[in-house]
Design goal:
There is one protein chain. This protein is mostly helical. The protein has one domain: Growth Hormone, Chain: A, CATH 1.20.1250.20. Helix content is about 80%, strand content about 0%. It comes from Comamonas endophytica. This is MFS transporter. It is found in: Cell membrane.
Length: about 400
């Protein structure tokens, strides 16, 4: 446990400011990770590759996070938090600049590997830091505040990046992200106090949580949830263009609406996860399946499509804090590592989802990604209910 946990009970005034700065940093980090979703069509055209091939950049990012996240976080969890977060933002600024300069697919792939190494370190330590500052009774809401960065990225970052990509090119969008990363680093340097890291604990000692079957079950559930989410979301821009016949110049605005309703999902997820984490996972996974299926069915009826995307967006964003807090609660003795393992599991799901969605497009067309994602979401909902029943019995 971090020595900052002693601060949590008193809730110093600076704790809220620190949490909000972490939320802003999360906005930049999530926008960097998922901006590719909105830029896939334009990027594929410019680099003369297929959308399915370009989509594997999402897979690459996720696989790197999945493989390197836990050991890197375990090694760096003791580092003073402000210094650690500044280093993460510097890496994101450099990698976005490299992406903007990338002359081909392979250099762009390299530019995606660098931030993928830093992302899980941020999420594992930022979630733990916010939870410790807030105290156990408000941990869920504090982490949900940090996760507002995800909602803000979906509301503004990814859609505006898509719009900017259409207006100034996808390279210009990455340049804008590089500058924004540096700006947030300056804010963090000026306003965030120094926060002690966790006590240095060996990786082997932290990894004992992997011996707990309940913890492993929670992690596998996150894999299923994120596979469902990103089977569809990775190709949402393509789905809107090809299936719903939304003009390319308007896709960014549709993605902005998707992110806007996600604010409600983030709020609901932050409240309900503190009460019944598994029940909340089941409910929002079922809602996710419904939204994905409805989007495919109502793609040509724009009034119905708005409602379907609203359901999808609420469920999609709610599941981010729900999965993170659910896994962290299952391993209170090693929350930083548990949080990072969940991020790695989530990125494993993202990678699987991107692959599944890409294969689905190749075999059955773009509309099939909604059906495939809904099927996996239904499985996740059932699994969560089964886990809830067994854990209550135990």
């Amino acid at each position: 446990m971090s020595s900052s946990s002693s601060v949590a009970a008193g809730q110093p005034p600076g704790s809220r400011i620190s949490t909000m700065i972490l939320a802003i940093a999360a906005f930049v980090i999530v926008t960097t990770e998922f901006l590719m979703v909105g830029l896939l069509p334009a990027l594929a055209r410019d680099l003369s590759i297929s959308v399915s091939t370009a989509g594997q950049l999402v897979t690459l990012f996720a696989v790197v996070v999945m493989v390197f996240g836990p050991p890197l976080t375990a090694r760096l969890a003791h580092v003073e938090r402000k210094r650690l977060f500044l280093g993460v933002l510097a890496l994101f600024a450099a990698s976005n600049a490299l992406a903007a300069l990338a002359p081909n697919f392979w250099v762009l792939a390299l530019a995606r590997i660098v931030p993928a190494l830093a992302l899980p370190v941020f999420w594992g330590t930022a979630s733990e830091t916010a939870a410790q500052l807030a105290g156990p009774k408000r941990a869920g809401r504090a982490v949900a505040t940090v996760y507002l960065g995800i909602s803000a990225a979906m509301l503004l970052g990814i859609p505006l990046g898509t719009i900017a990509g259409d207006a100034i090119g996808w390279r210009g969008a990455f340049w804008a992200l590089a500058m924004l990363s540096l700006l947030v680093a300056v804010l963090l340097q000026c306003f965030m106090p120094a926060l002690p890291g966790s006590q240095r604990v060996s990786l082997a000692q932290q990894a004992r949580i992997l011996r707990d079957p309940a913890f492993v079950a929670h992690v596998l559930l996150s894999v299923a949830v994120f596979t469902a989410m990103f089977t569809g979301y990775t190709y949402l821009a393509e789905l809107l263009e090809k299936q719903a016949l939304v003009p390319a110049a308007q896709v960014g605005w549709w993605l902005m609406g998707f992110g806007a309703v996600g604010l409600l999902g983030n709020w609901l997820g932050g409240i309900w996860v503190d009460r019944k984490p598994l029940a909340a996972t089941a409910a929002f996974s079922a809602l996710l399946a419904l939204g994905m299926l409805a989007t495919v069915v109502l793609a040509r009826q724009h009034a119905g499509l708005v409602l379907a995307l609203a359901i999808w967006g609420i469920a999609n964003t709610a599941l981010y804090p729900i999965c993170q807090i659910r896994v962290m609660k299952s391993a209170p003795q090693a929350q930083a590592l548990a949080g990072t393992i969940n991020v790695s599991a989530a990125n494993g799901g993202i990678a699987l989802g991107a692959v599944l969605g890409g294969a689905s497009i190749s075999w059955w067309g773009v509309a099939s990604v909604g059906v495939a994602g809904a099927a996996v979401a239904a499985v996740a909902a059932v699994a969560a209910l089964v886990m809830a029943r067994r854990f209550v019995q135990r």
